[in-house]
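Query structure, 216 C-alpha cells:
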C-alpha cells in the first residue's frame, strides 16, 4: 500500500515537473536496498513498531478508545528523534568524538517541518496497524520499512550512494512525501472498513445454507 501510494504521488510529481530523476544504477541500487533494508529493519522499523504500535498501542487500547491510543502513540513517536540525538551525543562523548547537536529533530532537519512529517507518518503507521486482522503489527513494520527505503532513495539517494536519486525543481516538491503518506492512510482506512464489513457478515456457507424443513 505504501509503495503503491509513493509510486502514484511521486509519479504525478514527476509528470508535473516537480521532480527530476537521475539515471539508475541497478547493481548499486539493489545493494543499497538490501543493506539499508537489513539495518533499517533491525534498528528502526522492528524495535520502534514493537514498542509503540505493539506494546504501547495494546496498553492504551485496553483502557482508552482507538482515538486516544492513536494520538498517544503518535505523541510518544514524536519524542523518539529527540531522544536519539541525546543518546547519539552521549555515545560520541564516550567515544571521544565531538557530539552532534541535541534537539527535537535530527541535525540538518527543520524542526517544525520534521515534526509535522513525523505526525503524519505516525498516524499512517496507526492506520496500517489497524487495517488487518491477522499480523497487524507486521503491517506497521512493513509500512515503516517501506517509508524509510523510499525516502532514503528518493530524497537522500545522492548523499547515501543509493544508485538513484531525484532533484527537486521546486520547493513545493517536499510536500509530496506527506501527500503519499496521506494516500496510503486512506488506502489503509478503506482496507480496514472492508475487513470490518466482512467480519460483520455471516459466513457465506452458513448464510446460503437452506433452512431444514420441519418434519410433519
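Result returned for the query:
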Amino acid at each position: 500500500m505504501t509503495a503503491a501510494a509513493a509510486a502514484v504521488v511521486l509519479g504525478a510529481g514527476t509528470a508535473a515537473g516537480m521532480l527530476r530523476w537521475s539515471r539508475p544504477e541497478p547493481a548499486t541500487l539493489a545493494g543499497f536496498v538490501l543493506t539499508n533494508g537489513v539495518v533499517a529493519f533491525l534498528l528502526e522499523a522492528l524495535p520502534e513498531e514493537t514498542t509503540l504500535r505493539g506494546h504501547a498501542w495494546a496498553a492504551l487500547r485496553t483502557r482508552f478508545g482507538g482515538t486516544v491510543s492513536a494520538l498517544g502513540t503518535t505523541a510518544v513517536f514524536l519524542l523518539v528523534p529527540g531522544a536519539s540525538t541525546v543518546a547519539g551525543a552521549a555515545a560520541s562523548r564516550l567515544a571521544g568524538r565531538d557530539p552532534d547537536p541535541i534537539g527535537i529533530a535530527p541535525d540538518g532537519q527543520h524542526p517544525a517541518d520534521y515534526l509535522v512529517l513525523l505526525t503524519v507518518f505516525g498516524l499512517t503507521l496507526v492506520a496500517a496497524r489497524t487495517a488487518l486482522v491477522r499480523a497487524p503489527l507486521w503491517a506497521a513494520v512493513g509500512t515503516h520499512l517501506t517509508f524509510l527505503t523510499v525516502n532514503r532513495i528518493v530524497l537522500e539517494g545522492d548523499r547515501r550512494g543509493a544508485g538513484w536519486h531525484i532533484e527537486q525543481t521546486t520547493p513545493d516538491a517536499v510536500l509530496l512525501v506527506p501527500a503519499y503518506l496521506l494516500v496510503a492512510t486512506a488506502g489503509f482506512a478503506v482496507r480496514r472498513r472492508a475487513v470490518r464489513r466482512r467480519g460483520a457478515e455471516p459466513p457465506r456457507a452458513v448464510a446460503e445454507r437452506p433452512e431444514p424443513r420441519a418434519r410433519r
